[in-house]
């Protein structure tokens, strides 16, 4: 099924509007500045997955101050890596980033490789991160698709309120078709389109309250032309619950371990500030952290990896 609405504009009309808006309105983020290294871009892309910019900024700055290169990151103790990661969530990302840095040291002379294929071959680097780093750090015209870009595509070209949970084959095809031609400018416009569509989704075309009144493509947007219909049931995604989840309990355990000192298993589990979490849930979460190599246990004491 085509992802194009009959009301969809021609992509060539949309590109210059969104790119022009980005040039004037984009946030000044350190990983977008010309002096930022490819490693800085990669760290930002991993941190920004499922985590808002405001929480990432101080962690990114601290990370880059301590470990400005893949080589420095590869040599860092895992306990420090997890401490600097702090409360960004999904801390396995931090260990995967370090594993990727180690592979760069082993296979790429400590440099971030410059193509999406090489990036994807690194441990823990998926399709999105590889494409984003190749595009934003190396100017490669890869097709970058995150949730913000998917939403912009869905509204402007498919006339849908939301793109739905799954990245479908039709959406993938649409994303490829929407990329600007690359022959005339070595992909500069294509890379700018990636960054601009992402920023438009983050700032203007947000999931809950799109600001169509100040949007640079309001008069072209298929969703607006269709009368801004509400999302269908299939397009809606449930917000992720936090309170009471294993993620919350794992986060509380990690917060205790980041204090640095080894702690007795019983003291750790009983001392969590989560009265509603059952003993069984606490044990399950600690055991899962041990399995994920985010913590280690010896003689009944638990700590971040490498501390005991
Ligand atoms: S007009 Fe509204 S829905 Fe369309 S792209 Fe802009 S903000 Fe999004």
TrEMBL record:
PROSITE patterns: ENDONUCLEASE_III_2 (PS01155). It comes from the Bacteria. Residues 47-203 form the HhH-GPD domain. It is an enzyme of class 3 (hydrolase). InterPro entries: DNA_glycosylase (IPR011257), Endonuclease-III-like_CS2 (IPR004036), Endonuclease3_FeS-loop_motif (IPR003651), HhH-GPD_domain (IPR003265), HhH_base_excis_C (IPR023170), HhH_motif (IPR000445), MIG/MutY (IPR044298). Its EC number is 3.2.2.31. It catalyses: Hydrolyzes free adenine bases from 7,8-dihydro-8-oxoguanine:adenine mismatched double-stranded DNA, leaving an apurinic site. Its cofactor is [4Fe-4S] cluster. GO terms for molecular function: 4 iron, 4 sulfur cluster binding; 8-oxo-7,8-dihydroguanine DNA N-glycosylase activity; adenine/guanine mispair binding; metal ion binding; oxidized purine DNA binding; purine-specific mismatch base pair DNA N-glycosylase activity. SMART domains: ENDO3c, FES. Keywords: 4Fe-4S, DNA damage, DNA repair, Glycosidase, Hydrolase, Iron, Iron-sulfur, Metal-binding. One of its GO terms (biological process) is base-excision repair. Belongs to the Nth/MutY family. PANTHER family: ADENINE DNA GLYCOSYLASE. This is Adenine DNA glycosylase. It comes from Nesterenkonia cremea.
């Amino acid at each position: 099924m085509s992802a194009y609405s009959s009301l969809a504009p021609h992509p060539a009309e949309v590109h210059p509007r969104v790119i022009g808006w980005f040039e004037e309105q984009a946030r000044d983020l350190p990983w977008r500045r010309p002096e930022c290294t490819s490693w800085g871009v990669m760290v930002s892309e991993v941190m920004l997955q499922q985590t808002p910019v405001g929480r990432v900024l101080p962690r990114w700055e601290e990370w880059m101050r301590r470990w400005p290169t893949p080589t420095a990151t590869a040599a860092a103790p895992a306990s420090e890596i997890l401490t600097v990661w702090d409360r960004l969530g999904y801390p396995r990302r931090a260990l995967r980033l370090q594993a990727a840095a180690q592979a760069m040291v082993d296979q790429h002379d400590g440099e971030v490789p410059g193509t999406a294929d090489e990036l994807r071959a690194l441990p823990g680097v998926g399709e999105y991160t590889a494409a984003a780093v190749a595009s934003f750090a190396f100017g490669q015209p890869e097709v970058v698709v995150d949730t913000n870009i998917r939403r912009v595509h869905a509204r402007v070209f498919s006339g849908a309120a939301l793109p739905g949970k799954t990245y479908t084959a039709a959406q993938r095809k649409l994303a490829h078709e929407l990329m600007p031609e690359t022959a005339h400018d070595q992909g500069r416009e294509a890379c700018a389109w990636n960054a601009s569509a992402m920023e438009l989704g983050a700032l203007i075309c947000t999931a809950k309250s799109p600001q169509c009144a100040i949007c640079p493509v309001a008069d072209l947007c298929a969703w607006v032309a269709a009368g801004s219909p509400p999302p269908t049931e299939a397009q809606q995604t449930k917000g992720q619950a936090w309170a009471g989840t294993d993620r919350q309990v794992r986060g509380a355990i990690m917060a205790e371990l980041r204090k640095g000192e080894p702690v007795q298993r019983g003291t750790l589990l009983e001392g969590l500030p989560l009265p509603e979490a059952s003993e069984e849930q606490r044990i399950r979460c600690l055991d899962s952290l041990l399995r994920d190599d985010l913590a280690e246990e010896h003689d009944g004491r638990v700590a971040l990896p490498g501390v005991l």
